[in-house]
Design a protein that fits this description.
Chain A: One of its GO terms (cellular component) is Golgi apparatus. Chain A: Pfam families: Adap_comp_sub (PF00928), Clat_adaptor_s (PF01217). Chain A: Keywords: Cytoplasmic vesicle, Golgi apparatus, Membrane, Protein transport, Transport. The complex is a heterodimer of chains A (418) and B (956). Chain A has 418 residues and is an alpha+beta fold. Chain A is built from seven helices and 23 strands. Chain A folds into three domains: 146 residues, Beta-Lactamase (2-Layer Sandwich); 127 residues, Immunoglobulin-like (Sandwich), CATH 2.60.40; 106 residues, Immunoglobulin-like (Sandwich). Chain A is 17% helix and 42% strand. In chain A, a hairpin with a 2-residue loop joins strand 4 and strand 5. The radius of gyration of chain A is 25 Å and the shape is globular. Chain B contains 40 helices and 13 strands. In chain B, 47% of the residues are buried. A five-stranded antiparallel sheet of chain B has the order 1-2-3-6-5, with no helix packed on it. Chain B has a five-stranded antiparallel sheet with strand order 9-13-12-11-10, with helices on both faces. The chains are: A alpha+beta (418), B alpha+beta (956). At the A-B interface, strand 2, strand 4, helix 2, helix 4 and strand 7 of A face helix 2, helix 4, helix 7, helix 9 and helix 12 of B.
């Protein structure tokens, strides 16, 4: 099982270590540092590194490497999922997950880590349970603790630990009972030079914020459940009911949680809401290149596209760019060669464009690679797959809750090749 | 306000100050001090000196303080064992506390203190906690047993904790069940023989019930445990699969992958005609695809596993090519894995898309990725024949970009395409030649030189091109030098008139000016070959090359099957069995896929193939840089060409020396490699019209050279020579009383390719016998006398005559029972006598029964599993080498030898006179006199007899 955890910052300093079994010397991280040195960027450090006696599994989040050490045959995904849970928990506890924050709260971090694993076996990883065991630091609580001498460690067995619904604590009470669901879809797509789609798929999630008194039992049904043929559920969802009736039936956790995530695969036709017209040309023997891109709406179902952001990694040979946008602001960083253009909203009557010239290194041949354009955007009140919630019902409690549902479509990894 | 204040140091000395604070009367101050101590500990500072002071704070009703002290204890108890004893009383007391949280905390912490003296005190509290009324305490105690086992395994067994733990599998609380399973799995990993997780249908049922109700982590443990179960039939397998499939929709990817493992394994048992089988296949694709939209680290692990799944069951993901398309900001480790899978999924249906993508990748920034993409195009060409033309033109486009490393990679792969499709794409050679100057990597240069040499007759200025390389001969890498040598010899053989000077130049460069033994030896071989018999040289050097294999670096099937059982584990990421990397490989039990119901019952029967070491495991189409020698030899000398005429011609020349012997060994003959007279003065050559080198090699070099060559050319070396196969002692076939006084005893032998029946005819009658003749009935292999029975003089009473009757296998065939039954009729002046005898099958093993390694691999896979038979060879305590050489004497050839956890695996082939190939895998354990023989053959009825042949050969 998981032996130890090392937290390493981008500079290569180990700023926290935690051992769940006998201590492992930090020299084991030397293998990690070697790999880190070889990788051109932090993102490229391989997640699985074999050493003679151990195996190092790492994730890179918030500019911190979380490196777990294992000694025997342990499922790597189990370790990586656990590391993600650690990151989420830190974020949940401290608002942000950063080196400074972790150092500032080192004792709480240590206590939390101790509760999450026992001898390398997961003990309590649900945030609601952890928070009952070890209260997150707040300014008020720190003050109160100092005055009264009370502690931020709960001495009650968390109620969720052993119940059939470990994700929900008992005795929840709200004056306003509300349940909100956000259907968020991200489009991952690769568009080729000519504008046709090479691959496009939708990653969707339904995130919920449920603040309901007691033990409510909810059902959620869809207008078109057939869209959902590849789904991953929160443990609270009753799978059998879904299998037979295509209805989501569950006792929700208290607070924010992800009810389900789904995937609409490349085999279905995915609507592409934007197009990019581009004309990027380098000429041999000239130190000037032409650059022109225009963004426009395509299949938007009548909705506005907002928050449009265009980024592109320009070839090394580009020294500088002098461009004029028809709207928004743009920046070209001559060191990293990253061009970003914050477009904002797309007005179909007046399409935003960015035009100008590029200064190329003189005397060299034209760059081998063409820049890929990365696109970000948002469309409110639209789930691009067409998914629609039919109704939400509550059983088991008598009050009437407020219900709300919101849809949003975003660009995920949306790339246009030029 | 924050914990960072704990790090501030004062001038007086931190430890001193902390000591004072820890002993303070104020609770709050104490707690702050302990926090400071913990803070120092977390960053790796040594605060062990404070041990007694911290332990003193343990007696408290403040839970937070207690926890902090426990944290400290766990860290330092080992270094202060005597002090740690002080804490025991408090632990024991806490284990009786009314609050289950404190009971659990106490037992949990005690288990983490790795001090023998403490563990003794742990037993009683642990026993109580395992039976605690509160499930939270029970589940914590279950893990504690695993901890204790790690510290003192004997103690755990003596105290009977393992049985208690096994009982917990039937606990009413699913969380307790999950933890018990996890603990037992961990313990059994270090005790492979203990059979702790004795799974039966009842316990499986309990696990499946708990699976639905426990936490995600518990589900992983239970699924991994389920995967070790062997269902008794396909119906049980199906019912387990049905109950596991819902896990595919879990949000935790580790749960998903563990479920995939269980399904992939149990699917093996389901009949392919079953509707459910198809349903299951369909259900497997979406979760795998979903894993690819997760974080890159998860993707990486998923991709490594998908790589295995795609090799085992390509049908699952054959329509999902697009999800493996590379995004430009994927981390490099994800890109490379995706590329690999794209090639595995490439088929005629999607090749156009794949090619377009690959072409796109070839213009990316990352050099490693671009190179791999270009190679991938070549691999597509080789894999999908219909696409070859398009691939070649794509490669040509890429060459036009003139990007140096792209051009070089392209040339390397085009060489392979030429070999796969000879005489098809040679028109592109001109384009390739244009880029000659830009090649600076050895592999690319070698590939280009090979192309020039191979197609010298189509390239007008081949001599000029090669000459230009020759200028810097000594600065080239060995790979290029060897290739250049061969290419120029090829050129000479094709255009002898204008290139004599060039060939002499290169031969003298290679033999006289080089200190590389490989190069020098090859130089001498060519030189002697050219000087002795240019016709033979042509046959050897310009021999037709074997086509290269279609499949691209597949994992060998046995390993693949084993790895499928390890889906989701480290082994699946490394693509190595756990024994290859697990510490001390103590806990490794081999896992194997369950056999499909109805097929042979041997669960362990490997489905697979030979390999010598990791490197050779994958029949690489794109030759790895490392094995250039083997590869080059392969290129040049190709398959055994007509050997005998060559050997004969050199004998006629009276030059039975270097070439005679050397070539024989090249040809795969069993001669012992070079004779030791390498250094001797070589004979003057006749045909080529130029002088052989003088006695340039000092005599002393001879022996090492010889042995070097022996090694290089053949693994078989050594024994066997011309002795022929094993001959059984003669036995009486026809007793005198049944044949009016004629006694016939005999045996069969095989020598240098010919079979004979060695007979002793004894006259036990009182009259002279004459006019002998012999005839065979039709038999399974068409054995027939090749000559009449020649008994020169009449046989006088009490006289014997020994006759060797040559046999051939061109007689008429009829299947006999037993297969090797031979009915013989012998006639003399008295009467006709009939008898039947059984001949040992090994007389039918032919001399060219050595299969190419890749052929072997392909054939082994090709032959259905039902045709596999397994036998035990008892009481044979020979070493692997002895076995192999003994068998080789009887034309059973060892193709590869591999050592797997101390046991030797020999992969062997043999061919029968009627062309039936038999493939064998022989497992030899050093201490065990019983060998395991698995035979695969398209005609399974011969297996039994082949086994008997093995048995006879090895025991004599």
């Amino acid at each position: 099982m998981i032996h130890s955890l090392f937290l390493i910052n981008a500079a290569g300093d180990i700023f926290l270590e935690k051992h769940w079994k006998s201590a492992v010397s930090r020299s084991v991280c030397d293998y990690f540092f070697e790999a880190q040195e070889r990788a051109s960027e932090a993102e490229n450090v391989p997640p699985v590194i074999a050493t003679p006696h151990h195996c190092l599994l790492s994730v890179y989040r918030h500019k911190i490497f979380f490196v777990a050490v294992i000694q025997s045959e342990v499922p790597p995904l189990f370790v990586i999922e656990f590391l993600h849970r650690v990151v989420d928990t830190f974020q949940d506890y401290f608002g942000v997950c950063s080196e400074v924050m972790i150092k500032d709260n080192v004792v709480v971090v240590y206590e939390v880590l101790e509760e999450m694993l026992d001898n390398g076996f997961p003990l309590a990883t649900e945030s609601n349970i952890l928070k009952e065991l070890i209260k997150p630091p707040t300014i008020l609580r720190t003050v109160v603790n100092t005055i009264t001498g009370s502690t931020n460690v709960g001495d009650q067995l968390p109620t969720g630990q052993l119940s059939v619904v470990p994700w929900r604590r008992t005795g929840v009470k709200y004056t306003n009972n509300e349940a909100y669901f956000d259907v968020i879809e991200e489009i991952d797509a690769i568009i080729d030079k000519s504008g046709s789609t090479i691959t496009a798929e939708i990653q969707g999630v339904i995130d919920a914020c449920v603040k309901l008194t007691g033990m409510p039992d909810l059902t959620l049904s869809f207008m078109n459940p057939r869209l959902l043929d590849d789904v991953s559920f929160h443990p609270c969802v009753r799978f059998k009911r879904w299998e037979s009736e295509r209805i989501l039936s569950f006792i929700p956790p208290d607070g924010n949680f992800r009810l389900l995530s789904y995937h609409v695969s490349a085999q279905n036709l995915v609507a592409i809401p934007v197009y990019v017209k581009h004309n990027i040309s380098f000429r041999d023997s000239s130190s000037l290149g032409r650059f022109e891109i225009t963004v426009g709406p395509k299949q938007t179902m009548g909705k506005t596209i907002e928050g449009v952001m265009v980024t592109s990694q320009m070839p090394k040979g580009v020294l500088n760019m002098s461009l004029t946008p028809s709207q928004g602001t743009h920046i070209f960083d001559p060191v990293t060669k990253l061009l970003s253009w914050d477009v904002g909203k797309i007005n179909p009557q007046k399409l935003p464009s960015l035009k100008g010239s590029m200064n190329l290194q003189a005397g060299t041949s034209k760059p081998d690679e063409n820049p890929t354009i990365n696109l970000q955007f948002k469309i409110q009140q639209l789930a691009i797959s067409g998914l629609k919630v039919n109704r939400l019902d509550m059983y088991g409690e008598k009050y009437k809750p407020f219900k709300g549902i919101k849809y949003m479509t975003k660009a995920g990894k949306f790339q246009v090749r030029t | 306000m924050t914990d960072s204040k704990y790090f501030t140091t004062t001038k007086k000395g931190e430890i001193f100050e902390l000591k004072a604070e820890l002993n303070s009367d104020k609770k709050e101050k104490k707690k702050e001090a302990v926090k400071k101590v913990i803070a120092s500990m977390t960053v790796g500072k040594d605060v062990s000196a404070l041990f007694p002071d911290v332990v003193n704070c343990m007696q408290t009703d403040n839970l937070e303080l207690k926890k902090l002290v426990y944290l400290y204890l766990m860290n330092y108890a080992k270094s202060q064992p005597d002090m740690a004893i002080m804490a025991v009383n408090t632990f024991v007391k806490d284990c009786e506390d009314p609050n289950p949280l404190i009971r659990a905390l106490a037992v949990r912490t005690m288990g983490c203190i790795r001090v023998d003296k403490i563990t003794e005190y742990l037993c009683e509290p642990l026993r109580k906690c395992l039976k605690d009324e509160d499930p939270y305490v029970r589940k914590t105690a279950a893990v504690c047993v695993a901890k204790l086992h790690d510290i003192n395994a004997q103690l755990v067994e003596d105290q009977g904790f393992l049985d208690t733990l096994k009982d917990l599998i039937s606990d009413s609380n699913p969380m307790v069940v999950a933890n018990a399973v996890a603990a037992l799995s961990e313990i059994s990993e270090s005790h492979p023989s203990s059979n702790l997780l004795d799974l039966n249908p009842q316990s499986i049922n309990k696990l499946l019930t708990a699976l639905n109700e426990c936490t995600e982590w518990g589900q992983i443990f239970i699924l991994d445990c389920l995967a070790n179960y062997m269902p008794k039939d396909d119906r049980e397998a199906q019912s387990i699969c049905e109950r596991v499939t819902p896990r595919l929709s879990h949000a935790n990817s580790a749960v998903v992958l563990s479920a995939v493992k269980v399904l992939m394994k149990f699917m093996e048992m389901l009949s392919k005609d079953l509707d459910y089988y198809g349903t299951l296949l369909k259900k497997l694709a979406p979760p795998l695809v979903t894993l690819l939209s997760a974080e890159p680290e998860l993707q990486y692990v998923a991709l490594r596993n998908i790589n295995l799944i795609v090799q085992k069951r390509p049908e699952i993901l054959k329509h999902e090519m697009k999800v493996f398309f590379v995004k430009y900001n994927d981390p490099i480790y994800v890109k490379l894995e995706k590329l690999d899978i794209m090639i595995r999924l490439a088929s005629q249906a999607n090749i156009a898309q794949v090619l377009a993508e690959l072409k796109e990748y070839a213009t990316e920034v990352d050099v490693d990725f671009v190179r791999k993409a270009v190679r991938a195009i070549g691999r597509c060409a080789i894999k999908v024949e219909q696409s070859a033309e398009r691939c070649v033109s794509t490669l040509l486009d890429l060459i036009q970009t003139k990007v140096n490393y792209v051009v070089q990679e392209a040339i390397v792969v085009i060489k392979d395409i030429f070999r796969k499709y000879p005489n098809k794409y040679e028109s592109v050679i001109a384009t390739l030649c244009e880029n000659l100057d830009s090649l600076d990597e050895p592999e690319a240069r070698a590939a280009m030189i090979w192309i020039v040499g191979e197609y010298a007759e189509r390239i007008d200025n081949a001599d000029e091109l090669l000459e230009s390389f020759l200028e810097g001969f000594h600065d080239e890498s060995t790979q290029v030098q060897l290739q250049l040598l061969t290419a120029i010899v090829k050129l000479f053989l094709k255009k002898p008139t204008e290139t004599q000077e060039l060939v002499q130049q290169v031969l003298s460069l290679a033999t006289q000016d080089s200190d590389n033994p490989d190069l020098r030896d090859r130089g001498y071989i060519y030189w002697r070959l050219l000087s002795t018999d240019p016709v033979a040289a042509k046959e050897v050097v310009l021999a037709e090359k074997p086509l290269i294999s279609e499949e691209t670096d597949l994992i060998e099937p046995t390993l693949l099957d084993e790895l499928i059982c390890y889906i989701g584990t480290l082994a699946s990421v490394y693509h190595k069995p756990p024994s290859a990397f697990v510490e001390g490989s103590r806990g490794v039990v081999h896992k194997s896929l369950p056999p499909r119901t109805g097929s042979s019952e041997s669960a362990e029967s490997p489905e697979a193939a030979p390999s010598a070491g990791q490197a050779a495991e994958q029949p690489a189409v794109i030759p790895a840089q490392g094995d250039l020698l083997g590869d080059l030899l392969n290129l040049d000398l190709g398959p055994p060409v007509s050997g005998p005429p060559l050997a004969a011609s050199s004998v006629q020349m009276g030059a039975v020396d270097l070439l005679g012997g050397g070539l024989d060994s090249l040809m795969g003959d069993e001669s012992e490699g070079l004779r030791s007279d390498v250094g001797g003065s070589p004979a003057m050559g006749g045909g080529g019209g130029f002088a052989a080198p003088g006695p340039a090699v000092p005599a002393g070099v001879g022996a090492p050279l010889g042995s070097g060559l022996g090694d290089l050319f053949d693994l078989t070396g050594g024994v066997g020579t011309l002795s022929g196969s094993y001959v059984a002692p003669k036995s009486v076939w026809l007793p005198a009383m049944k044949a009016k006084g004629l006694e016939i005893s005999g045996t069969f032998s095989r020598q240098v390719g010919s079979i004979s029946m060695d007979l002793v005819l004894t006259n036990k009658a009182l009259q002279v016998m004459s006019d002998f003749a012999i005839q065979f009935n039709r038999n399974s292999f068409g054995l027939a006398p090749a000559a009449p029975l020649q008994v020169h003089a009449p046989l006088a009473p009490n006289q014997s005559v020994e006759i060797s009757l040559p046999l051939n296998t061109v007689g008429s065939v009829m299947k006999m029972d037993p297969l090797n039954n031979l009915q013989v009729a012998v006639k003399n002046n008295i009467d006709v006598f009939y008898f039947s005898t059984l001949y040992p099958l090994h007389i039918l093993f032919v001399e060219d029964g050595k299969m190419e390694r890749q052929m072997f691999l392909a054939t082994w896979k090709d032959i259905p599993n039902e045709n596999e038979a397994q036998f035990q060879l008892k009481d044979c305590s020979l070493s692997a080498d002895a076995v192999s050489s003994k068998l080789q004497g009887s034309n059973i050839f060892t193709i590869a030898k591999r050592n797997v956890e101390g046991q030797d695996m020999l992969y062997q082939s043999l061919k029968l006179t009627n062309g039936i190939w038999v493939l064998a895998e022989l497992r030899i354990q050093p201490s065990n006199p019983t060998l395991t023989l698995s035979l695969k053959c398209r005609a399974p009825e011969v297996s039994q007899h082949v086994f008997q042949a093995y048995d006879t050969i090895l025991k004599n």
